[in-house]
Amino acid sequence: MSALYRLLRPLLFALDAERAHRLTLAALDLGEAFGAIGLLAPRLPAAPRRVMGLDFPNPVGLAAGLDKNAAHIDALAALGFGFLEVGTVTPRAQPGNPRPRLFRIPEARALVNRMGFNNCGVERLVRNVERSRYRGVLGINIGKNFDTPIERAVDDYLYCLRGVYAHAGYVAVNISSPNTKDLRTLQQAPALERLLGALAEEREKLAAAHGRRVPLVIKIAPDLEASEIEAIARLLLSFGVDCAIATNTTLSRNGVEGLPNSAQSGGLSGAPLRARATDVVKRLASALGRRVPVIGVGGILSTADAREKLDAGAALVQVYTGLIYRGPGLVAEVLEAFATRQPPSPL
């Protein structure tokens, strides 16, 4: 499959990035329907991990953003991921920001996106999940609608939590996208304390109603000061959050200065984010100790990049932009980073 992707990539890169994204997902769906992905995808070794009380067949996941509406779960699962994260989903459908809104920077193996939580709403996502055959670990990433005032953001997160709870392996709370106005202010201590308190209280009610405690995960930005990371860690511990994802995209343009599309507004992902994301993983893991695990994401395009995240303290990793530049073979390559390491004690 890696060789096939190398042949197809120039054709995809000749298209607008968002159009290429849609065509790739459609092709994966077609391939899965005819069983072609299973024939082309390499057989991956078992590398089970138990994190957040969940059993992962392997520790390499798909980050949120690729499949916003959970419409391609079965095809993506066939690529060998140990877990999938879909979304970000909001209570109501919304179109996102005007196009164009997704840009490649091939010279730096990077993307800039300002998608803006474009999605079909939580009810559509749930229907898609119900139709899928996938029975692995599914994370559902939730956010707020663009026109919900930030002071009422908690209402949107609670609505989504209730809507997806019965269908999620874990629920990831996105408070770190740079493409929704004021969203990142929810990472600040007073707002985050209010949000986590409401989510924790609602989660206990839902756990009692469903007979199952679904882990809560918080996704944070790479553009945080050390003191902010420590404050977030204290609140995650205080409210019993089960895991943290580090990180989302960055507003920094370090490493892409002067390159075509580098001046586009939005969040930067890919290779230039690697070191910044790893530093946040390290600081966050240190502040949390072994009491709360961290999922490392940002700039993973090779075995070495994944190993760096593990050395920094990540229990699991996720990829997205690396798939655009390396193709599905990246999953097997990243899994090599875990091959010589003993699994940590369960969290």
Characteristic terms for this protein:
alpha/beta; 347 residues; 40% helix; globular; three-stranded antiparallel sheet; TIM Barrel
Q: What's a concise summary of this model?
A:
The chain is α/β, with parallel strands linked by helices.
Dominant shape: globular
Please identify which CATH superfamily we are dealing with.
Aldolase class I
H/E element sequence: HHHEEEHEEEHEHEHEHEEHEHEHH
Structural class: alpha/beta
Main sheet summary = 8 strands, parallel, barrel
Count all strands and give the number.
13
Protein architecture, described:
The protein is an alpha/beta fold and 347 residues long. The protein has one domain: Aldolase class I (TIM Barrel, Alpha-Beta Barrel), CATH 3.20.20. The chain is 40% helix and 16% strand. It has twelve helices and 13 strands. The protein has helices at residues 2-13, 17-33, 36-40, 73-77, 122-131, 153-164, 189-210, 226-238, 274-288, 303-312, 321-326, 329-339, and strands at 49-51, 54-56, 60-62, 83-89, 102-105, 110-113, 137-142, 170-174, 216-220, 243-246, 267-270, 294-297, 316-319. The strands form three sheets. The protein has an eight-stranded parallel β-barrel, surrounded by five helices. Strands 5-6-11 form a three-stranded antiparallel sheet. A two-stranded antiparallel ribbon has the order 1-2. β9 (216-220), α8 and β10 (243-246) form a beta-alpha-beta unit. α6 packs parallel to α7, α9 runs parallel beside α10 (303-312) and α10 (303-312) packs across α12. The chain is globular. The model has no long low-confidence stretch (mean pLDDT 94).
